[in-house]
């Protein structure tokens, strides 16, 4: 999903020498929460309703505006936009082309609404497109990572024996166990498909080993013992890690999890 597909193209502008009260009037007139500040044909900042509310009406826009708004290309995807907003703690991005022309604005709210479509309703985790974005981005930036392909053991048998609603409860509870392993920085978890999950982490190997030990250890969920197999690709040690596309790395990790199922425990 590209930014161009969710951005707002109706952009209103103002010059930095106008008063804050005038900016507020313009926002009311055009029913917008932001104005792009343009002086002599060049973007110099952005003023939002939050800036207006916190500044004296008699001050000028130059005193209240954000002079370093985040910019983004319309070709970028929403995952990148989301990470930019998280890093900057801002509410919107200005969409500009290569000629530095303002094409539109994309807000935090618009991005969050779109990202919600990628959330798995059962577990609340992001689905496969999220992990594809994270993995491909890190490969492109030559940032090594650990990839854990997690596959619940005998899930088909659990469904047959206890029914699909119970199977859903197992997936939900097991995903909570996985989420408890995720640290705030460097860990990325998704429900990949059915009873399969993927964890990408740039954390230390001690963290990875702790995760694997927890995941493969049998867990009691509603009086049923549940365990999982893990296929592990170590991007810090794997030969030709960066020469391989993410799909191939995931496929290899999946095969390793299948081998782990046969052995009941896998360590790399």
UniProtKB/TrEMBL annotation:
Domain of life, per lineage: Bacteria
Matches recorded under Pfam families: CBS, GGDEF
SUPFAM superfamilies (UniProt xref): CBS-domain pair, Nucleotide cyclase
Keyword annotations: CBS domain
Domain annotation CBS: ranges: 7-64
Cited PROSITE patterns: CBS, GGDEF
Domain GGDEF, residue spans: 143-268
SMART domains attached to this UniProt entry: CBS, GGDEF
Entry-linked InterPro entries: CBS_dom, CBS_dom_sf, Diguanylate_Cyclase, GGDEF_dom, Nucleotide_cyclase, Rev_trsase/Diguanyl_cyclase
Protein's name in the database: Diguanylate cyclase
Source organism of the structure: Brevibacillus choshinensis
């Amino acid at each position: 999903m590209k930014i161009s597909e969710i951005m707002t193209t109706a952009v209103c502008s103002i010059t930095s020498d106008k008063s804050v009260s005038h900016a507020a009037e313009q926002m009311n007139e055009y029913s917008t929460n932001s104005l792009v500040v343009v002086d002599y044909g060049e973007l110099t900042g952005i003023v939002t309703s939050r800036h207006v509310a916190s500044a004296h009406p008699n001050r000028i826009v130059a005193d209240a505006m954000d002079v370093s708004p985040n910019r983004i290309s319309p070709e970028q995807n929403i995952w990148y936009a989301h990470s930019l907003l998280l890093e900057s703690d801002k509410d919107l991005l200005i969409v500009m082309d290569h000629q530095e022309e303002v094409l539109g604005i994309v807000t935090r709210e618009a991005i969050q609404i779109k990202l919600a479509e990628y959330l798995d309703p059962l577990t609340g985790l992001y689905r496969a497109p999220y992990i594809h974005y994270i993995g491909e981005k890190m490969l492109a930036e030559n940032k090594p990572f650990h990839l854990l392909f997690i596959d619940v053991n005998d899930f088909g048998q659990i469904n047959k024996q206890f029914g699909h609603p119970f199977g859903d409860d197992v997936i939900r509870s097991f995903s909570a166990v996985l989420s408890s392993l995720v640290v705030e920085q460097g860990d990325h978890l998704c429900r990949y498909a059915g009873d399969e999950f993927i964890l990408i982490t740039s954390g230390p190997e001690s963290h990875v080993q702790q995760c694997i030990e927890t995941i493969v250890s049998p867990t009691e969920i509603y009086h049923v013992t549940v365990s999982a197999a893990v296929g592990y690709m170590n991007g810090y040690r794997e030969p030709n890690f960066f020469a391989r596309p993410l799909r191939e790395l995931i496929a290899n990790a999946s095969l390793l999890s299948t081998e782990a199922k046969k052995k009941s425990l896998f360590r790399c």
